Amino acid sequence: MAKAILVLGGLLPEEMRSLEGHFVVLKPTKDNDPELMLSEHQNDIVGVVATPSKPVSAQLMEALPNLELIAQFGVGTDNIDKEAAARLNIAVTNTPDLVTADTADIALTLLLGVARRAFESDLYVRVGQWFSAPMGLGHSLTGKTVGVLGLGNIGQAIAKRVSAFDMNVIYHSRTQKDDVPYEYCDNLIDMAEKSDFLVCACPGGEATHHIVDQSVLEALGSQGYLVNIARGTVVDEQALVAALHNKKLAGAGLDVYENEPYVPEGLLKMDNVVLLPHIGTATVETRTKMGQLVVENIMAHFEGKPLKTPVAA
Ligand code: NAP
């Protein structure tokens, strides 16, 4: 049997070549028929390279009887049915840590972009509106409070960055962290009430589904901004659109959406939102390192060595 790896996305050409040196590499594209590819190679596929936007369901795992490993190209693994993977004895890996700095940078881009109206101002210049009137005013970051939802690797990198902007940091997660200088809020609504900016940096999945709902947005209030670099499912998107539409929220900066690449029509028409196409890790440097770690995990697994970055079931 030729061992095959099904690549659902992510890997750059160099890392693809590196895999091709050891495995048959299958990549569903617009030009081939993914279902035919899967049925032809069903018994050959021993590994899947997954990305956050591609669900890896129990059904897919069950259709691949020799699947041993799902190597996620990303840190969040909410797209993978991990219970099914554990039941079927399929190992899961991800690419933590090395995505942290770039994703935190995108949170800052969104925060600055929406509060200082940077992207709106760019458009203002390009379409010649500056000739008619000066651009309207934004809002300062200095002295404002950032509430971080999920103070993990990325949340802490965001906290460090906004601290350098002389902003005050508070945070909410399930557990209080011992080693950080920031105020802990054990209740998300209380944190939203105290925050000028609420920045989501927790994992996606069932436990955080719509954790930022209408009541949290109301607590953030009409002067508050929401920034989401976590997962679209963390925020109730309909409630967000309604809050922005009804001026119950000052603005939002989003890198992720509930149903990517679909972005609600309502958001597309608003000036006070910044919309990025899920580019938290989208740099040559980070995507290269992520791909290398994916390949290292695959090689380790099939050489019988310990996985570099296993994900607990
Ligand atoms: P991490 O180090 O595991 O941190 C996650 C944090 O979230 C932890 O501090 C955890 O603290 C908290 N948390 C977990 N469940 C929670 C809940 N139910 N309620 C409140 N807080 C909760 O992960 P990370 O590397 O920082 O990444 C965080 C997420 O960012 C990823 O899972 C991924 O979805 C997203 N991400 C997005 C991009 C992008 O391109 N936009 C890129 C990378 C990552 P407790 O355990 O104390 O609750």
Report what the structure shows.
There is one protein chain. The strands form two sheets. This protein has a seven-stranded parallel beta sheet, sandwiched between helices. The chain has a five-stranded parallel beta sheet with strand order 2-1-3-4-5, with helices on both faces. Helix 1 packs parallel to helix 12, helix 5 packs across helix 7 (153-164) and helix 8 packs parallel to helix 9. The protein is an alpha/beta fold and 313 residues long. It is built from twelve helices and twelve strands. The radius of gyration is 21 Å and the shape is globular. It folds into two domains: 4-96 and 284-302, 3-Layer(aba) Sandwich (Rossmann fold); 100-275, NAD(P)-binding Rossmann-like Domain (Rossmann fold), CATH 3.40.50. It starts with a strand and ends in an 11-residue tail after the last helix. The structure holds NADP nicotinamide-adenine-dinucleotide phosphate (NAP). The site of NADP nicotinamide-adenine-dinucleotide phosphate has 29 residues, from helix 5 and helix 7.
User: Do you know the CATH topology of the largest domain?
Assistant: Rossmann fold
Number of domains: 2
Proportion of beta-strand residues = 15-25%
Largest sheet: 7 strands, parallel
CATH level 1 class label of the largest domain:
Alpha Beta
Task: Give the full name of the CATH homologous superfamily of the largest domain.
Answer: NAD(P)-binding Rossmann-like Domain
As a whole number of angstroms, the C-alpha radius of gyration is: 21 Å
